[in-house]
Specification:
single chain, about 220 residues, 9 helices, disordered C terminus
Length: about 220
């Protein structure tokens, strides 16, 4: 009887200690789904995160990826590009660079809602995992697309600032910056390098949950 009383007391103590933590924790359904309903994430709480949309690139991009050093940006990869450049994909996987799925323009999924399922399956075949993040190349997310991704436990990530090169953007607390490497795009690899030097970047997850993220001011 005494042992039962002791175990009950220990259990009550543990529940008392853990209860405040559980009540104050953010509302996250599981490690994959970061929102409790379909929504687009465009900003975190602290620090800066860099994301790069890749739908175009050749040997220069492959060399850039091979020489990339941590902390890595989150790479949004177009399926067509991934199929054309398996060597770049091999570099990404060997270096454990975080990668996500870059889709078509938003209107494409509005006209053909089933297309997202095809793209998710193709991504999984290439990277052996379902993507944690998805972005359309114009950052337009129709409601039907948001709902499908939410059910698939894939998070929809937009950006705070879409940078196309030129003058460096001002630092915004919790910012998620996106730069697109496109066939007719304005941003070049050297622009991304310049942006990387402008401030301290952290992972998207660190910026969302404010885990010791700091930024540096851009010199005038």
């Amino acid at each position: 009887m005494l042992k039962k009383i002791i175990w009950f007391a220990v259990l009550c103590t543990l529940l008392f200690l853990l209860l405040p933590t559980s009540l104050s924790a953010p509302k996250i359904l599981n490690v994959f789904k970061l929102t409790d309903e379909p929504d687009v994430i465009v900003r975190g709480t602290s620090g800066s995160a860099l994301t790069v949309d890749i739908s175009f690139g050749d040997s220069a991009l492959e060399n850039w990826i091979a020489k990339m050093e941590a902390p890595y940006p989150l790479l949004f990869v177009d399926i067509g590009w991934a199929k054309r450049f398996p060597d770049s994909i091999e570099h990404i996987q060997k270096k454990n660079i975080p990668v996500a799925l870059l889709g078509e323009k938003g209107v494409v999924y509005e006209d053909n809602p089933a297309l997202i399922d095809k793209h998710l399956k193709e991504f999984q075949l290439i990277f052996n995992n379902k993507p944690l993040w998805f972005r359309t190349r114009d950052e337009v997310f129709p409601k039907v697309l948001q709902e499908t991704l939410w059910k698939q436990e894939v998070n929809t990530l937009g950006s705070t600032v879409r940078w196309k090169g030129g003058k460096l953007p001002s630092v915004i607390k919790g910012e998620i910056l996106s730069v697109a490497l496109e066939r007719k795009g304005q941003a070049k690899l050297e622009d991304i390098d310049r942006l990387i030097e402008s401030r301290e970047f952290h992972s998207v997850e660190d910026v969302l949950f404010a885990t010791n993220a700091k930024t540096k001011k851009i010199p005038e």
